Amino acid sequence: RDGRHKLLLVTKSDMVDRLLTHDAQAVVVASFSLNANQVAEQWEHGAPSVSRRIQAAAKLAEAGYEIRLRIDPMVPVQTWQSAYEDLLSEVFDHLRPSRITLGSLRGLQSTINNCTDKSWTPYLSERSNWGRKVDLATRIEMYRRIMERLASRHDFNHVALCKETLEVWSKLDLDYTRISCNCTV
Q1: Which of 20, 43, 45, 86 is most solvent-facing, going by the fewest CB within 10 Å?
Q2: How many CB atoms lie within 10 A of CB 154?
Q3: Whole-number CA gyration radius for the chain
């Protein structure tokens, strides 16, 4: 509790009641992974609903815990614009996170080769030395739309990108040297 160290909990869980019995707000940061409902329902089997995760985050926020959000992996499903805007509305109806980190769907070739459900792989049209990704133009469009929505509707600009190229940071007028993403203090 000397303030030099913090524990970052990254979760899709909604089970926060036990944490609420501790006085650990000075040393624990809770980061919830969220996605658009359509995406979560299709590919996040076994995880609590997005709404339940948001409610859990709100409980912790109300108790004084720092809350961060990861909207990752964003998937450009047919209705992605409205799906992700609905997610943002639901989030800000319940809490105001300290930061939001955005990322898009990506997959290592070994993951793609060994998974049984390949329904998500058609979204990965760009190859990189890391693996396969959503194409550059779509990633930029998704990030830009969400960032603009956060700024205009929610007066929120504490946004970073996860596992993105310098080219994407530059095209979005973001300074990667001033990164404050999910994983950094």
Answers
A1: 45
A2: 14
A3: 17
